[in-house]
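Submission sheet (multi-component)
Chains listed below:
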Amino acid sequence: MINLMSAMTLLFAIAMIGAAFVAIQVKQISIAMLAAGLVSLLASVMFLFLAAPDVVMTEAAIGSGLTTFLFFFVLGRVRGDKND
Amino acid sequence: MESLLNITGAVLLVCGATFLFLGGLGLVRMPDLFNRIQAGAKTTTLGTLLVLIGAAFLQPEWSLKLLLIGLFLLFTNPLSSQVLARAAHRIGIEKSDKTHVDKLAEDLGDKR
Amino acid sequence: MVEILIALAAVLAGGAFLMALVRFIKGPSTFDRVIAFDVLTVISITFIILSALIEGRGIYLDVALVYALLSFLGVIAIARYLEGRF
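Outcome: structure written.
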């Protein structure tokens, strides 16, 4: 069962690289923020596979939940148009 | 020697993962956004519920937490997909050519 | 027997994960990426439960509860932003 955990960790690492590629490649800022939130979410699942559940709760609540929510809230307040 | 309870739980796990796989396949193959929302949300809800039931068969002392996760997922996942589909309809995402019936547009047209 | 079936479930969920990631990378609009984000979060809950079953630690289920809450709040916030109602 060690090999299965390693394979799952590798899958999430590849997915993190793909999400980070989307975050630096795309033009619209909302998609970039969403991809940054996805990177944080996959990183927290990888922390869980490395057996650290308390770090996972902090990372998931702050990095993926609060930061993404705050970015979208501020972007909705600052800009009026929906194009970017 | 494994008991019947463990085998049942593991088979339920595989059934739930199969539903997740079909949901991912629908997410890739479907033609427009609303069909993707349909395929993604419903199959992942059912698949995750089956995985939770299978885990409850495998480890019976975790049943309370698994029931809590299942209830929360059952309440929130269709709601979030419905909010997302309504937002997409309000923005005006174009539909596929094969879509013929749009009840929400008819209702809004009657109201205006 | 049970270990083999758990490994098969992990492989199937991994296939679903990769396909949702493909939709996230090449999705034409923002809404496609949001629904792919939602599906990836729910598949992550399945992975968390599978890892809890493999390791045999019940504390991992609290993390799955946090993830269910997180998916809901994130999608609601993003949908409100995309409607332009903040």
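Remark: Chain B has one domain: 4-111.
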